[in-house]
């Protein structure tokens, strides 16, 4: 098999791209997509560490499965919020949802 | 290191994943962005297969590509009229620098000193791995992950109700 750090490099690159998307995209849906990329990179890391370091335990796979669940929940609620904000303000730009700004 | 079929498969899947991620963060049209997201997630599913976790690969395709990416497609279409924003990015140069710095920090600070230099952490310590059957048993066993599994199901139920309540159209909306 390929060395462990190949997977870590790919996951780090995916995470950095996701970070860039979260920081820079103006559209709220694109920000959520970038968050999904970051969660996906974390999942690759979890499974890679499980396979290479502790394959005799079940924890790595189970944690990756729970990350799937949390990612699904996050996407559903986040998109519901974006649709609600769009309906009220006709904008999907997070910076324009500033009702709570002090 | 000799070039094996696994190495070639890894390179192909990682390229699919990275190109998809690049498409997600740079595309003009967000509908294409969701397609790029599917491509990226598919590459990750291939990596799960290479890491001997076929169940997670199947869940990745079913849940991420089948459900979450479709959800994003719906969200893009429901907010269509402004999905082609004139400017795609805020503070582009600073954010590129931040992302590159984060990547460099991860590689130079963690991956290179710990995982590249240590020969014991290069290859799997054993060819025997836990299987999908073990994963299913751990979700049903009280000594293992039964409680987190139930909490996860509760979380999904609460999410479903919450998403419906948040996105529902009401008459007395402000």
How is this structure best summarized?
The complex is a heterodimer of chains A (102) and B (174). Chain A is mainly alpha-helical. In chain A, 76% of the residues lie in helices and 0% in strands.
Fold and architecture overview:
The complex is a heterodimer of chains A (102) and B (174). Helix content of chain A is 76%, strand content 0%. Chain A has 102 residues and is mainly alpha-helical. Chain A has a single domain, classed as Helix Hairpins (Orthogonal Bundle), CATH 1.10.287.3510. Chain A is elongated and about 50 Å long. The model of chain A has no long low-confidence stretch (mean pLDDT 90). Helices cover 71% and strands 0% of the residues of chain B. Chain B is globular and about 65 Å long. Chains A and B meet through helix 1, helix 2 and helix 3 of A and helix 1, helix 2, helix 3, helix 4 and helix 5 of B.
Summarize the SSE layout with pairings:
The complex is a heterodimer of chains A (102) and B (174).
Chain A: H1 4-24, H2 28-53, H3 59-89
Helix pairs in contact in A: 1-2, 2-3
Chain B: H1 5-26, H2 30-50, H3 54-78, H4 92-116, H5 132-140, H6 146-167
Count of distinct strands of chain A: 0
The whole-angstrom Rg of chain A is 17 Å
Tally of separate domains of chain A: 1
Report the end-to-end length of chain B measured between terminal Cα atoms.
64 Å
Which sheet architecture does the biggest sheet of chain A show?
A: none
User: So what's the CATH class of chain A?
Assistant: Mainly Alpha
């Amino acid at each position: 098999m390929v060395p462990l750090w190949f997977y870590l490099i790919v996951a780090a690159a995916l995470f950095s791209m996701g970070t860039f998307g979260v920081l820079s995209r103006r559209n709220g849906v694109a920000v959520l997509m970038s968050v999904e990329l970051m969660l996906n990179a974390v999942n690759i890391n979890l499974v890679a560490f499980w396979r290479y370091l502790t394959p005799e335990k079940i924890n790595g796979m189970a944690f990756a499965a729970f990350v799937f669940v949390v990612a699904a929940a996050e996407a559903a609620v986040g998109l519901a919020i974006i649709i609600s904000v769009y309906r009220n303000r006709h904008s999907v730009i997070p910076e324009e949802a500033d009702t709570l700004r002090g | 290191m000799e070039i094996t079929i696994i190495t070639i498969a890894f390179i192909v899947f990682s390229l699919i994943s990275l190109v998809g991620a690049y498409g997600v963060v740079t595309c003009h049209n967000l509908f294409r962005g969701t397609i790029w997201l599917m491509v990226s997630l598919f590459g990750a599913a291939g990596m799960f297969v290479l890491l001997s976790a076929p169940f997670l690969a199947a869940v990745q395709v079913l849940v991420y590509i089948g459900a979450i990416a479709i959800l994003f497609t719906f969200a893009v279409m429901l907010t269509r009229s402004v999905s082609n924003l004139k400017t795609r990015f805020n503070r582009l140069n600073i954010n590129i620098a931040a992302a590159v710095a984060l990547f460099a920090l991860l590689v130079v600070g963690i991956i290179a000193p710990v995982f590249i230099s240590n020969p014991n952490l290069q290859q799997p310590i054993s060819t025997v791995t836990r299987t999908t059957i073990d994963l299913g048993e751990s979700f049903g066993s009280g000594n293992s992950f039964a409680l987190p599994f139930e909490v996860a199901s509760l979380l999904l139920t609460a999410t479903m109700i919450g998403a419906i309540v948040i996105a529902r159209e009401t008459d007395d909306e402000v």
